[in-house]
Amino acid sequence: QVQLVESGGGSVQPGGSLRLSCAASVDTYSRNCMGWFRQVPGKEREGVAAVHTESGSTNYGDSVKGRFTISQDNAKNTVYLQMNSLKTEDTATYYCAARPATFGSSWCVWTDFRYWGQGTQVTVSS
User: Fold this and answer.
1) pLDDT band at 104 (very low <50, low <70, confident <90, very high)
2) I need a surface site. Which of 4, 39, 65, 110 has the fewest CB within 10 A?
3) What is the DSSP string of 70-106?
4) HSE on the CB side for 27, CA within 13 Å?
């Protein structure tokens, strides 16, 4: 079964930082796309960051480029999201995501993601 477990959410002031972690099963993680999405009530789920765990190729949503960084630890089957210079607009529930392992492309497309973690809340306020 696909297992995605997020951690690291919390409350910070604008300009602060948080690091989220997502642990996945080896079958889900290996040679696949892993990523992060976020969602607030009344809005569509937004792609934040993605990485292909074999090639290392990354992509980011326009609103977080230059502030967020996705990274990986293949030995731990874990991806991270380092969030710096946080803004109030970053407040959302953040979901770890995975693409089906049968999708072979090294290009991680937002709409290809199918599996989701339970979510972790990030709140940015003064």
Assistant:
1) confident
2) 65
3) EEEEGGGTEEEEEE-S--GGG-EEEEEEE--TT---S
4) 6
